[in-house]
Write a structure and sequence with these properties.
It is a single chain. This protein is α+β, with helices and mostly antiparallel strands. Helices cover 32% and strands 32% of the residues. The chain has helices at 2-14, 24-36; strands at residues 44-49, 55-60, 64-71, 74-79. The chain has a four-stranded antiparallel beta sheet with strand order 1-2-3-4, with helices on one face. The N and C termini lie far apart (27 Å).
Length: 81
């Protein structure tokens, strides 16, 4: 499950970016990580890498924004205010 998210976080550092807001697999993986952290995310509108570092910004339900960070294979989810 988290292999795709790990791969994406690695690619974001190398400059590989999805122009359409993320692949369907990445959106599904991000949604699962967000839900497992106890947050609401019914529909992922887009997933975008941070310019530097191992994190992605996820937009859900046209309302919520989350940051998923990789801490050595352990993912954390933060609400982006």
């Amino acid at each position: 499950m988290k292999k795709i998210l790990s791969l994406f976080l690695g690619l974001s550092v190398c400059g590989g970016v999805f122009a359409d807001g993320g692949s369907p697999e990445l959106k599904a993986e991000s949604q699962l990580v967000i839900r497992q952290a106890g947050y609401k995310c019914n529909t992922v509108n887009g997933v975008y890498p941070a310019a530097f570092g191992g994190s992605v910004k996820v937009f859900c339900d046209d309302l919520y924004t989350y940051i998923i960070k990789d801490h050595g294979g352990r993912y954390t989810v933060e609400v982006d205010d």
